[in-house]
Amino acid sequence: MIWENRQSQDIVTPTQVGRMGYHDPYLDRYRQTSVRYMTPEGATDGALADGIKRIKDMTTGRIELGNEDVSFIRRMANSLLGCIRA
Fold first, then answer.
1. Which domain of life is it from (predicted)?
2. What are the sequence ranges of the domains in the chain?
3. DSSP alpha helix (H) spans, 1-86
4. Residue 53 pLDDT
């Protein structure tokens, strides 16, 4: 019944004023579900941000480290430097 009457429902949300933070719940969800890489530059920027976040998560305990992760971090650092150069 709710679905059938969806057109008559008013959705009231507060207006966003100013910039959202990088970790705003909306933006976290957006990054998980959206295609963000529309240009080579966008892909480079996105890969750089994702890689830095993953390394941060690995080094702050959000992701449990295994034996292979040290070499992964080294490879990721090289990839990130390549992104910066691009």
1. Eukaryota
2. 37-86
3. 25-33, 40-59, 69-85
4. 81
Q: How far apart are CA 81 and CA 86, in angstroms?
A: 9
Q: Buried b / exposed e across 35-64, counting CB within 10 Å, b at 16+?
A: eeeeeeeeebebbbeebeeebeebeeeeee
* pLDDT in the model for residue 70: 74
Going from the first residue of the chain to its last (86 residues), give the mean pLDDT of each consecutive group of 10, the final group possibly shorter: 80 76 82 73 77 79 74 78 74
| Residue position matching structure tokens 């990054």 | 31
DSSP letter for 5, please: T
